[in-house]
Design goal:
MoCofactor_Util/Proc, XdhC family protein, single chain, about 40% helix, Rossmann fold, XdhC_Rossmann_dom, alpha/beta, four-stranded antiparallel beta sheet, about 230 residues
Length: about 230
C-alpha cells in the first residue's frame, strides 16, 4: 500500500469516518475513498453500496477486477432515558453490533442493577456528550418524555448529522417539541429528520415491543443512509 494511502486510511478511521481501500487487482494500484468522496460511474455505485452494507469483497466491473476493503466505524447508539424501553433495547442493540450507552441524570432510574453490562451515565446528557461528541455514525433515541433532558441532545444529534434521531411521544407532544427546537435555533429541515413517534409502525404496545420497533428503525436508517458528514449537516 502506498504510504500516503495508509496515512489517509488511518486518519479517516481515527476520525470515525467510513473509508474504503479500492485496489485494482490487475495492476495493484489502490486509492482511498472516504464516504462522500466522488467516484465516477459504476465503480462509484458499487463503493456506495459497500459503504451501506459494510461488506468488503471483489468486484468485477468493465473487464477489470477490484477489491473493495471497507472500514465502517462501529455504530454507536446513545439512548437518553433509563426507562423500561431502554432496558429492553440495550441487550438487543448489543446483539445487533451497536456500541450502546444510556444517559439519564435521574439516579433513581440510572442504576447499574437495571442496566447490567451497559455503559450508563447518571449525568446530564450535555455533560456526557461534551466529552464524547456525537457524529454521523451515531444514532440517538430520546425516550424520557422530559424536555429538560431530551431537547439538548436532540439538537446536538441533528447538528452532528447522526444517521438516526428518534424521540418518544405522540404527535401532539412532538408538535410542542418542534416549537421548542425551533426556538433553540434548529432549522425546519433538520427537525424533519426526527423520527417521532419513534420506531417502525408495527403496532407495538409493550416496552419490549417498542424497543424492537426502535431498533428495527435504527438498522433501516443505518443501512439506507446517505453519505452525510457533520460538516455538511452544519
Amino acid at each position: 500500500m502506498d504510504p500516503a494511502s495508509l496515512k489517509k486510511l488511518n486518519a479517516a478511521r481515527a476520525g470515525r469516518r467510513a473509508v474504503a481501500l479500492v485496489t485494482d487487482l490487475g495492476d495493484g494500484r489502490d486509492r482511498v475513498v472516504v464516504e462522500g468522496d466522488e467516484v465516477a460511474a459504476a465503480l462509484g455505485d458499487s463503493v456506495a453500496k459497500a459503504f451501506r452494507s459494510g461488506k468488503s469483497g471483489v468486484l468485477e466491473l468493465e473487464n477489470r477486477s477490484y477489491f473493495i476493503n471497507v472500514h465502517i466505524p462501529p455504530p454507536r447508539l446513545v439512548v437518553i432515558g433509563a426507562v423500561h424501553i431502554s432496558q429492553a433495547l440495550a441487550p438487543m442493540a448489543k446483539l445487533a453490533g451497536f456500541d450502546i450507552e444510556v444517559i439519564d441524570p435521574r439516579t433513581a432510574f440510572a442504576t447499574p442493577e437495571r442496566f447490567s453490562g451497559v455503559r450508563l451515565d447518571a449525568e446530564w446528557p450535555e455533560a456526557v456528550l461534551s466529552g464524547r461528541p456525537l457524529d454521523p455514525y451515531c444514532a440517538l433515541a430520546a425516550v424520557t418524555h422530559d424536555p429538560k433532558i431530551d431537547d439538548i441532545p436532540l439538537k446536538a444529534a441533528l447538528v452532528a448529522g447522526c444517521f438516526y434521531v428518534g424521540a418518544l411521544g405522540s404527535r401532539k407532544t412532538h408538535a410542542k417539541r418542534v416549537e421548542r427546537l425551533t426556538s433553540m435555533g434548529v432549522s425546519a429541515d433538520r427537525i424533519e429528520r426526527i423520527a417521532s413517534p419513534i420506531g417502525l409502525d408495527i403496532g407495538a404496545s409493550s416496552p419490549a415491543e417498542i424497543a424492537v420497533a426502535i431498533l428495527a428503525e435504527i438498522i433501516k436508517a443505518l443501512r439506507t443512509r446517505s453519505a452525510v458528514s457533520a460538516e455538511r449537516a452544519a
